[in-house]
Specification:
two-stranded antiparallel sheet; 2 domains; 2 strands; 8 helices
Length: 171
């Protein structure tokens, strides 16, 4: 059975303000908690002491359980994790001029894939991407994310990310 965690208000506050001064290991793990990944998926992203890390975040009130599933969850909207597969060659369209719901979904997908590909180094830009209020504002941040992916994962990964989130036809 897989457990799904999400950040509590205290967890979100810690990401934004660093009030509780979490250790880098706990902070990095907290960043990976998104309300979609199972505990097994999160454990794979935490390099050391994954069980203890999740336990501490839960005990200290930074995360909470939101569900338990029979099998590891699959999220049809989310892109595959970079560690398991390369970004898709034929991405679904995600035009910058989208209705609000589509804009929010695209923004969430872009943030998640960026975080999966870059890891904890993605934190600052990922927060800015999550706060983007318009397609134009997000587009500028996506271009920065694409450059960072190119520096960390190589040109092909950057090109795939750009194709998925920047090169879509405008609607």
């Amino acid at each position: 059975m897989a457990t799904i965690y999400r950040k509590t208000a205290k967890g979100h506050s810690e990401i934004e303000t660093r009030t509780h001064r979490l250790s880098p290991r706990l902070r990095s793990a907290l960043i990976m908690i998104d309300g979609r990944r199972s505990d097994d998926d999160v454990r794979k992203l935490i390099p050391q002491q994954a069980d203890e890390t999740l336990r501490l975040l839960d005990e200290q009130g930074f995360i909470e359980i939101i569900g338990i599933t029979q099998d590891a969850p699959t999220n049809a909207v989310a892109p595959p994790r970079a560690a398991e597969a390369e970004p898709p060659k034929a991405p679904p369209p995600a035009a910058p001029a989208l209705p609000v719901r589509d804009f929010e979904a695209t923004r969430a997908q872009a943030v998640r894939l960026f975080t999966d590909m870059v890891g904890p180094m993605a934190e600052t830009l990922a927060i800015k991407m999550e706060r983007a209020r318009s397609p134009d504002e997000l587009r500028t941040l996506l271009q920065t994310a694409q450059r960072i992916i190119g520096n960390t994962r190589g040109g092909q990964a950057a090109a795939d990310y750009g194709t998925r989130f920047l090169d879509s036809p405008r609607g």
